[in-house]
Prior knowledge:
heterodimer; A: mainly alpha; three-stranded antiparallel sheet
Amino acid sequence: MMEEAREGSLSVSAQTIRVTEAVRDGDALTFIVISQKLSGSGEYHVARTHEDFQWLQQCLFSQEVVPGILGVIFPPLPAKPQLNAPAKVLKQLGFLAMGEDWRMYCMALETYLQQVAAHTTLSKNKCLENFLTSSEPPGHQRARKGIFNRLSQAMEGMRKEGHKDVDDFFQTERDNNLTLTGCSKSATERFIDVVLTEQKLAVACGHFSTALHLCVEQEEDSAVLAFSKICVKLSEVIDSIKRNFESVAENNLSTLGLGLDLESRCQEAEKEMLYRRTCKLVELETASRNAERAKPVKKAAMDELKVAAEKEFDHVSGVAKQEIARFHSTHVELLRQALILWCEKQLETARDTSFRYSQHLQAFKGLGE
Amino acid sequence: MPRIVGCTCTPLFEPMATSSERSPPPFPEDLEPEPDEVGDQDSDDGEDIFLGTDNPLEIKMDPSLSASDIANSTKPLSEASSPPVMDLLSEPASQASSAPMVDLLLEPASEGSSAPMVNILSEPASEASSAPMVDLLMEPASEASSAPMVDLLMEPASEGSSAPMVDLLMEPASEASSAPMMNLLMEPASEASSAPMMNLLMEPASDDLKEPPKPDIDPLADITNDTPLSEVKTPVAAMPQEPPSDLFDDEPSELFAEPRQSNTAKQQQTSIFDEPDEDLFSEPLGEASKKPQNDFFKEALAPVAKASNVCGPLSDNYNEHPTDIFSEEAITTLPSAVSTVSVNSKTNGVHSDEEEPDIFAEATVELSLDSPRNDRKKKEAAKPSASAPAPSVSASASKPQPKTLEELEEEVEDKFELNISITNPEKVGDGMNAYMAYKVSTQTTLPMFRSKTFTVRRRFSDFLGLYEKLSDKHTLNGYIVPPPPEKSIMGMTKVKVGKEDNSSAEFVERRRAALERYLQRVVFHPSLLQDPDVREFLERDDMPRAHNTQALSGAGFLKMINRATDSLSKMTIKMNESDVWFEEKLQEVEAEDQQLRKLHIMVDSLVGHRKELSVNTGGFAKSVAMLGSSEDNTALSRALSQLAEVEDKMEQLHQEQAASDSFCFAELLADYIRLLGSVRASFDQRMKTWQRWQDAQNMLQKKRETEAKLLWANKPDKLQQAKDDITEWEAKVTQYERDFDRVSATVRKEVLRFEKEKARDFKKQIIKYLESLLQSQQQLIKYWEAFLPEAKAIA
């Protein structure tokens, strides 16, 4: 399987990959993944569950043959969406659980697939091709317990985050990453709060607007009639405010919200990569210590181990350096895109709303006594 | 307010006059089908019977009037008093004994159709002074013109300013001195004993002719020893030399406290002051010493004789009853205005009016205490009617009137030159004794104030004190007295403790604005503005400290209102409502109260969410700033810190918007929830008066039963007592019924006014709100526009 996976390149164009919708199937969600063939004009339509995505991710993780695979910053796969899950679980998904019909989640998956397909190393994996094109659900064999497992073991067992790095570059990167992870995470959370409040405001405005309609009385009395008219008008105004909040919240979600979410998950992914590298570093250091202390009988074996570790570490570091450079540029571009799109959309909404408000204002001023 | 039409006479007669004024409400219902025939028909009958009735008046007012004029002038009377009434009138006349007369007067009263009758009878009695006549004549005038008489007559009575005043004066007379009234009525009757009514009424008139001022005093002295009003009269008569302004400027309340107390409840002070002032000065002074006043009194009469100087009376016509009539029923006067009858009635009204405004104008100048608004109205109203001769003008003027009047009223409201602002909240004192003092600045062109601009300092409890005073006086009459903001122990404690934080500043500002709105509502109310306490509040430098405001303030106050309304709404079920309008309105008001409360909760949550949004935006701004500072990429880092700044500004914006929501909506709604409490209180007041009337009726029934039993048992010794009781209670029933009608009319008027104000208020606030919304939205656009290039600049 590994051999197969290594062969060939992707037969679809990475940019065209779309996750169009999430179909609810009992307790599970099935996502429709669409991608365009590089050759010709055909399209692949496949239905994938989150388990399939997890399988793909594991395949990517477990390409042990690829030197320095641990140095790759794997595109972050969003956590499993829970249907009928308590609010607390949903909250962990953050932005991804917001929006209607899991649209945000689909967009996140789409980004994930695009990132994988655009990755020079990862895109070569046969599993991806399989995942995108095969009409059958891929690999129903239980995912092999590859490095993914080992990684989690490592996570549990060792606390090496504070380990002093030998390379200043990595040391700085690790420090930066640590702060950025924290910052982006908190920014995302704050932003979620903002959006949630906006949604609450929209709901409150909706209630207010409805309640105003109840104040309308069917009366011929001129003063009462005038008041009823005012109520109706005000209800319209409040409805405009509501729609404003809705679209502002929507804009926030679909642009900067997703961007920040991705940013924080990417930082997390980088952190994991750096962690894996640190683990390798620790391994190497242990190996060299062992080699030094080893009795002559075992000296050769230890040296061999040390060299192997050294080689692997170098590979990882090498890949990691490239990855980090790539990551930095994509992360800036990603945020830039998010910010621009966000700003444009908000500007548009603000202008629309402003126009509507001024219309309301005119209407009110024109309202007879 | 200065509806002083019928008030130039002595206080004693004033009440009489007002009795006629007050009667309309019940009476229109009875007469409703009649106006048409009235208009067409019996001008002749009227002359026959009422020539006498009217003559005295006319003659007294204007001896030089020709016979035909007099005949004309009588017509309105005949109209006012539809056939049944005339019958009643003629009967007592032929019987010519005083006792039956009284019975006659009272019996119809219990029937509910008594009002016109009483009026007419009271007329001759009070003919010495023109005022009652005016009232009577005014009414027929309006009523003669068209069918919707009910409204016409109702409205004037309920008219915020004129009616209560009139009523007020009426009450002491009818209650404390219901006897004098009887006497008065009997007097002419006994004088003429068996003579026809005409003559009967003529005679007192001729008496008057000879000596106009005297009748004023005589009946007073004779009859009203038991009336508090006579006491009032004495001091005035005693010191005619003194400038009247002193007398009344200094101690108006003392002088008139007595008549007021004779009422079952305290009545509107304003009106009392305004009226008696003029009454006392114009008449007693003039008559007692033949002084300038007397001269101008005569002068005032002269124009009437010529019947050319119409401006004065007409303007009064406009401003008093007709104003209301027309604003309510714009169409009404048109049809019949053309007919001669109505012309005559108008003329008549004009004549009788004539002398009042003139006298009154003098009084106004001298006293500087009374209604400037009336003057102003007069001026304005004078324009349309300026130079035309009286009779024709009144006829033709009645046509353009509807429109002009409405316009005029609008104008008046627009030109309402009284701006009140409350500024500079200032903490006075330290610790728990500290309080906030507010600067109350008034800017006005109203002549009732001493200067055009003045400023006083008031503390919160002064505002509460003002409300208490106003509410004591005016709620009983069915007025909607705007309630002040509630006392907030929480908010004030914070201020006292001296925390200079946002919330206490916001509290102070909120309260300042609430007080301002409260005061503006008070002065915008035409009747409340006339209240001396309001004037004192605005003008007086050292305000005596208001006491016992605790009980009235805060949650306790609201609770009290709620409880009162609850218990009273239970009574509603018992009250068999004669007027569907009130029933529906009360339901509406209650539903609205619920709705406004709901809205208030919603707005509160909206404001809460806005604040939350502001806080969250602030939090986001901070974390973006952090993100920016730890970002390596310089362009991104800069963009992020720019974003942080933008978000900071947005936080500010959201906060302002929250404040705007809160100020525009939450406060407005809170105001109106409080106001609805007052509206309900006025409905309750109406119900109370109804209850009192019903109780009195029941009592009367019992008394009658007792009398019947006594008759049966043949116990003549106790019979007289029983008869006296019946008389007494009959008077009470009449009185209470009138009270009820008056309060009903006032409530109706007030509710309509309230609704109008409400619509206006909401519109104003919403426009303000929308403007702020639009402004903040545009600010937002600017922020985004400024940020977009920054985002694009990220390399």
